[in-house]
Amino acid sequence: MTRSIVVLSGGLDSTVCMGVARGSGSEMVALTFDYGQRHRIELEHAAAVAAHYGAEQLVVRIDASQWGGSALTDTSIDVPDAADAASGPDRIPTTYVPARNLIFLSIAVGVAEARDADDVYLGINALDYSGYPDCRPEFIDSFVQTAALATKRGVEGAAIAVRTPLVDLTKAGIVRLGLDVGAPLGLTWSCYRGGPLPCGRCDACVLRAKGFAEAGVADPALG
Protein backbone atom coordinates (compact mmCIF):
# COMPACT_ATOMS: atom_id res chain seq x y z
CA MET A 1 0.00 0.00 0.00
CA THR A 2 1.20 3.50 -0.81
CA ARG A 3 1.49 6.15 1.88
CA SER A 4 0.48 9.83 1.77
CA ILE A 5 1.23 12.74 4.08
CA VAL A 6 -1.78 15.04 4.52
CA VAL A 7 -1.20 18.51 5.98
CA LEU A 8 -4.17 18.72 8.35
CA SER A 9 -5.08 21.92 10.21
CA GLY A 10 -8.55 20.82 11.25
CA GLY A 11 -10.13 23.36 8.90
CA LEU A 12 -12.63 22.80 6.12
CA ASP A 13 -10.15 22.69 3.25
CA SER A 14 -7.58 20.38 4.81
CA THR A 15 -10.31 18.01 6.01
CA VAL A 16 -11.83 17.75 2.53
CA CYS A 17 -8.31 17.23 1.20
CA MET A 18 -7.90 14.33 3.62
CA GLY A 19 -11.14 12.85 2.34
CA VAL A 20 -9.78 13.01 -1.19
CA ALA A 21 -6.53 11.36 -0.09
CA ARG A 22 -8.53 8.62 1.63
CA GLY A 23 -10.28 7.94 -1.66
CA SER A 24 -6.93 7.29 -3.32
CA GLY A 25 -6.50 4.20 -1.16
CA SER A 26 -3.27 5.36 0.43
CA GLU A 27 -2.31 4.86 4.05
CA MET A 28 -2.51 8.37 5.51
CA VAL A 29 -0.36 10.22 8.00
CA ALA A 30 -1.93 13.47 9.21
CA LEU A 31 0.69 16.19 9.68
CA THR A 32 -0.50 19.02 11.93
CA PHE A 33 1.44 22.15 12.81
CA ASP A 34 1.27 23.79 16.21
CA TYR A 35 2.85 27.07 15.16
CA GLY A 36 1.73 29.40 17.94
CA GLN A 37 -1.56 30.24 16.22
CA ARG A 38 -4.08 32.20 18.24
CA HIS A 39 -6.86 29.88 17.05
CA ARG A 40 -5.32 26.90 18.83
CA ILE A 41 -8.73 25.28 19.04
CA GLU A 42 -8.12 24.06 15.50
CA LEU A 43 -5.58 21.58 16.91
CA GLU A 44 -8.39 19.79 18.76
CA HIS A 45 -10.39 19.63 15.54
CA ALA A 46 -7.40 18.27 13.61
CA ALA A 47 -7.04 15.50 16.19
CA ALA A 48 -10.74 14.68 15.85
CA VAL A 49 -10.51 14.51 12.05
CA ALA A 50 -7.40 12.30 12.17
CA ALA A 51 -9.18 9.99 14.63
CA HIS A 52 -12.24 9.89 12.38
CA TYR A 53 -10.07 8.50 9.59
CA GLY A 54 -8.08 6.23 11.89
CA ALA A 55 -4.93 7.97 10.69
CA GLU A 56 -1.69 8.45 12.57
CA GLN A 57 -1.29 12.10 13.51
CA LEU A 58 2.12 13.72 13.76
CA VAL A 59 2.11 17.15 15.45
CA VAL A 60 5.10 19.38 14.68
CA ARG A 61 5.71 22.41 16.88
CA ILE A 62 7.07 25.62 15.38
CA ASP A 63 6.61 28.77 17.46
CA ALA A 64 6.04 31.40 14.79
CA SER A 65 4.90 33.79 17.52
CA GLN A 66 8.59 34.36 18.22
CA TRP A 67 8.95 36.31 14.98
CA GLY A 68 5.36 37.53 14.66
CA GLY A 69 4.32 39.56 11.65
CA SER A 70 0.83 38.07 11.45
CA ALA A 71 -2.48 38.57 13.21
CA LEU A 72 -2.61 34.78 13.60
CA THR A 73 0.59 34.59 15.65
CA ASP A 74 0.99 38.05 17.17
CA THR A 75 -1.74 39.01 19.64
CA SER A 76 -0.77 42.69 19.35
CA ILE A 77 -2.22 42.62 15.81
CA ASP A 78 -6.01 42.42 15.66
CA VAL A 79 -7.71 39.91 13.40
CA PRO A 80 -9.71 42.12 11.03
CA ASP A 81 -13.32 41.60 10.10
CA ALA A 82 -13.73 40.38 6.53
CA ALA A 83 -15.09 43.77 5.45
CA ASP A 84 -11.82 45.39 6.54
CA ALA A 85 -9.46 42.70 5.22
CA ALA A 86 -9.19 43.88 1.64
CA SER A 87 -6.99 41.59 -0.41
CA GLY A 88 -5.55 41.47 -3.88
CA PRO A 89 -2.23 41.98 -5.62
CA ASP A 90 -1.62 45.28 -3.86
CA ARG A 91 -2.62 44.30 -0.33
CA ILE A 92 -2.10 41.05 1.54
CA PRO A 93 -4.19 40.65 4.72
CA THR A 94 -2.61 40.82 8.16
CA THR A 95 -3.70 37.20 8.68
CA TYR A 96 -1.01 36.09 6.24
CA VAL A 97 1.66 34.14 8.17
CA PRO A 98 5.07 34.83 6.59
CA ALA A 99 6.17 31.86 4.45
CA ARG A 100 3.81 29.47 6.27
CA ASN A 101 3.11 27.11 3.39
CA LEU A 102 6.74 27.22 2.29
CA ILE A 103 7.78 26.09 5.78
CA PHE A 104 4.97 23.55 6.12
CA LEU A 105 5.61 21.99 2.73
CA SER A 106 9.34 21.75 3.34
CA ILE A 107 8.71 19.81 6.55
CA ALA A 108 5.97 17.72 4.91
CA VAL A 109 8.33 16.64 2.13
CA GLY A 110 10.97 15.78 4.74
CA VAL A 111 8.44 13.65 6.64
CA ALA A 112 7.32 12.04 3.38
CA GLU A 113 10.88 11.09 2.50
CA ALA A 114 11.54 9.74 6.00
CA ARG A 115 8.30 7.73 5.97
CA ASP A 116 8.71 6.54 2.37
CA ALA A 117 5.52 8.31 1.30
CA ASP A 118 4.93 9.03 -2.36
CA ASP A 119 2.99 12.26 -2.03
CA VAL A 120 1.96 15.19 0.13
CA TYR A 121 -1.60 16.55 0.10
CA LEU A 122 -2.15 20.25 0.79
CA GLY A 123 -5.59 21.87 0.85
CA ILE A 124 -4.70 25.24 -0.64
CA ASN A 125 -7.24 27.12 -2.73
CA ALA A 126 -6.59 29.91 -5.23
CA LEU A 127 -10.16 31.10 -5.93
CA ASP A 128 -12.25 31.77 -2.80
CA TYR A 129 -9.37 32.50 -0.45
CA SER A 130 -7.72 35.42 1.36
CA GLY A 131 -5.11 36.43 -1.19
CA TYR A 132 -2.09 34.73 0.35
CA PRO A 133 0.88 34.42 -2.07
CA ASP A 134 1.69 30.88 -0.90
CA CYS A 135 -1.70 29.57 -2.05
CA ARG A 136 -1.00 30.14 -5.75
CA PRO A 137 -0.42 27.28 -8.22
CA GLU A 138 2.81 28.91 -9.44
CA PHE A 139 4.23 28.68 -5.93
CA ILE A 140 3.45 24.96 -5.78
CA ASP A 141 4.98 24.35 -9.21
CA SER A 142 8.17 26.14 -8.19
CA PHE A 143 8.32 24.36 -4.83
CA VAL A 144 8.00 20.93 -6.42
CA GLN A 145 10.98 21.65 -8.67
CA THR A 146 13.06 22.86 -5.74
CA ALA A 147 12.10 19.89 -3.55
CA ALA A 148 13.13 17.47 -6.30
CA LEU A 149 16.58 19.06 -6.30
CA ALA A 150 16.85 19.00 -2.50
CA THR A 151 15.85 15.40 -1.70
CA LYS A 152 17.44 11.99 -2.13
CA ARG A 153 14.29 10.69 -3.78
CA GLY A 154 14.27 13.61 -6.15
CA VAL A 155 17.82 13.13 -7.39
CA GLU A 156 17.16 9.38 -7.72
CA GLY A 157 14.20 10.04 -10.02
CA ALA A 158 11.36 9.32 -7.58
CA ALA A 159 10.41 12.84 -6.49
CA ILE A 160 7.63 13.26 -3.94
CA ALA A 161 4.47 14.65 -5.52
CA VAL A 162 2.59 17.59 -4.01
CA ARG A 163 -1.14 17.20 -4.61
CA THR A 164 -3.49 20.17 -4.33
CA PRO A 165 -6.94 18.82 -5.31
CA LEU A 166 -8.79 21.94 -4.14
CA VAL A 167 -6.63 24.58 -5.78
CA ASP A 168 -9.08 25.44 -8.59
CA LEU A 169 -12.31 25.10 -6.60
CA THR A 170 -14.56 27.75 -5.10
CA LYS A 171 -15.52 27.35 -1.44
CA ALA A 172 -18.89 26.02 -2.61
CA GLY A 173 -17.06 23.50 -4.78
CA ILE A 174 -14.97 22.44 -1.78
CA VAL A 175 -18.13 21.91 0.30
CA ARG A 176 -19.69 19.83 -2.47
CA LEU A 177 -16.52 17.77 -2.87
CA GLY A 178 -16.42 17.23 0.88
CA LEU A 179 -19.95 15.87 0.79
CA ASP A 180 -19.09 13.64 -2.17
CA VAL A 181 -16.10 12.06 -0.39
CA GLY A 182 -17.88 11.83 2.97
CA ALA A 183 -15.53 14.19 4.79
CA PRO A 184 -16.54 14.94 8.41
CA LEU A 185 -17.33 18.61 7.81
CA GLY A 186 -19.01 18.89 11.22
CA LEU A 187 -15.66 18.29 12.93
CA THR A 188 -13.94 21.24 11.26
CA TRP A 189 -12.98 24.69 12.52
CA SER A 190 -12.30 27.81 10.42
CA CYS A 191 -12.47 30.92 12.63
CA TYR A 192 -9.22 32.88 12.92
CA ARG A 193 -10.18 34.32 16.31
CA GLY A 194 -10.37 30.97 18.07
CA GLY A 195 -13.00 29.66 20.46
CA PRO A 196 -15.21 28.88 22.05
CA LEU A 197 -17.53 29.77 19.13
CA PRO A 198 -16.77 31.04 15.62
CA CYS A 199 -16.93 34.84 15.44
CA GLY A 200 -18.78 34.85 12.11
CA ARG A 201 -16.99 38.05 11.04
CA CYS A 202 -13.39 37.21 10.15
CA ASP A 203 -12.40 36.36 6.59
CA ALA A 204 -12.28 32.63 7.29
CA CYS A 205 -15.76 32.60 8.82
CA VAL A 206 -17.25 34.67 6.01
CA LEU A 207 -15.69 32.54 3.27
CA ARG A 208 -16.88 29.38 4.99
CA ALA A 209 -20.44 30.71 5.29
CA LYS A 210 -20.35 31.75 1.63
CA GLY A 211 -19.28 28.27 0.60
CA PHE A 212 -22.06 26.46 2.45
CA ALA A 213 -24.66 29.01 1.33
CA GLU A 214 -23.68 28.72 -2.33
CA ALA A 215 -23.58 24.92 -2.07
CA GLY A 216 -27.13 25.06 -0.69
CA VAL A 217 -26.43 23.07 2.47
CA ALA A 218 -26.34 23.89 6.17
CA ASP A 219 -22.99 24.01 7.94
CA PRO A 220 -23.00 20.93 10.21
CA ALA A 221 -20.43 22.52 12.52
CA LEU A 222 -23.00 25.13 13.55
CA GLY A 223 -25.35 22.55 15.02
Describe this structure in words.
The protein has a single domain, classed as Rossmann fold (3-Layer(aba) Sandwich), CATH 3.40.50. 36% of the residues lie in helices and 11% in strands. The chain has 7 helices and 5 strands, in the order βαβαβαβααβαα. The protein has helices at residues 12-23, 41-52, 100-114, 137-150, 152-155, 171-180, 203-215, and strands at 3-7, 27-34, 56-61, 119-121, 161-163. The protein has a 5-stranded parallel sheet with strand order 3-2-1-4-5, sandwiched between helices. Helix 1 (12-23) packs across helix 6 (171-180) and helix 6 crosses helix 7 (203-215). The mean pLDDT is 94.
What characteristic shape results from the CA principal axes? globular
CATH class: Alpha Beta
Query: Over the alpha carbons, how many angstroms does the gyration radius reach?
Result: 17 Å
Please tally the β strands and state the result: 5
Count of helical stretches = 7
Strand content: 5-15%
| Secondary-structure class | alpha/beta
Descriptive key words:
36% helix, Rossmann fold, 5-stranded parallel β-sheet, 223 residues
Task: Annotate the secondary structure layout.
Elements: E1 3-7, H1 12-23, E2 27-34, H2 41-52, E3 56-61, H3 100-114, E4 119-121, H4 137-150, H5 152-155, E5 161-163, H6 171-180, H7 203-215
Parallel strand pairs: 1-2, 1-4, 2-3, 4-5
Helix pairs in contact: 1-6, 6-7
